[in-house]
Amino acid sequence: MRITTRMMTTRYTSSLNNLSSGLNQLNYQISSGRSFTKASENTSAAISAFQLRRDLSKAEGYQNNISFAQDTLSNAESSLMNINEMMQTAGDRILQGMNGTLDSGDKAIVARDLRAIQGQLFQSLNATSAGNYIFGGTETEAKPFSLNTAGSLLYKGINLDDITNEALLPGKADIESKLKKDSLFIDIGLNLKFDPAETNALDSSTAFNLAIPGINFTGSGMTSLNGYSRASEAPNNLYSLIGAIATEFESANYSRDNVDALYEHFQARVEDVGMTVSEIGSKTSYLEFMSNRLDSESANMLKRQTEVEYADPAKTIIDFKSQEMAYNAALQMGAKIIQPSIFDFMR
Fold it and tell me: Residue 125 falls within a domain, yes or no?
C-alpha cells in the first residue's frame, strides 16, 4: 500500500489537533481549577455536582430561615424579659401600697405608677421584629393587642376577659385553646412533609413552630378568688389585673383583703411570663443545634463538591507538562516527516 504525502499530512494534522485540544483542556483546568467544563465531558460527575449544588442551596436557605427565627426569638426574649421586669416592679409597688401606714394620697400615687406600668406593658405586647409583630402568632402584620372603649384588653379583636364565656362568645367556647395553639411554621431542614390523608395538612414534626401567641403569657378569662369582693370574678390577663389592683388603691372603699387576693393571683400569672421565656430558650437552643448540624453537613458537601468538580492541581500540572512535551515532540517530528516541496516556496 502506497502512503502518500497527503495521507501523512492529514493523519499528522489530526493527531496534532488532538494534542492541542488536550493541551488547551489541561490549561483550562489549571487556570479554573475545574475538572470539566461541560456535562458531556463527565456525565456522572456533572449529575453529582448538580445534586450537591442543589443540596447546598437548600442548606443555605435553611440557615437563612434559622437566622430569621433566631433574630425573632432573641427580640421576643428581650421583650419578655422587659415585661418580667415590669411585673417585678409592679409587684414591688403593690406591696408598698399594701403598707398600712400609707394614706389615700400615697395609695393614689401607687395606683398612678401601676397605670404607667399598664401602658408600658401594652406597648411591649405589640413589640415587633423586622416589621412583624412578635406575639401575634400566625398573624404577624396586624397588631395583636388593642383596647376597646371601656379600656379592656383585646387579643386579635377578642376581649380577653370574655374569651371563655360561651354566653358572650356564642359558638366559640374552644377559641382560647385555638389561639394558644396558634402556629407559624418555617422550614429548617427537618424534611418537610404534608399528610395527604388530612387534605395535605403540614406534619408539624417536620417544621419549626416560630409562633409565640401573646395570649399564652398574658392570660385570659376570669377566675373566682377567695376574699375578693369587688366582683364575682377577677381578670386573668396581666393588663386588666394590674388595672384592677390600681382601682382598689384608687377606691374610697379600699379593701386590703381585695388587694391581697388580687396580688396572690397576680403572682401566679407572672409565672406564665417566666415559663414563656424558658420555652423561648429551649427553642433557641434547638435552632443552634440545627444550625451547627447544617454547618457540618454543608462542610461535608463542599468537600465532596471539591472532589467531584475540581481537578487535583499537582496531577493536572504534571499531565499538562506531559501533554506539552508530546505536543512539542509532535511538532519536531512533523518537521522531519513532512518534507518541503516546491509549493512551500511559491508565493
Answer: yes
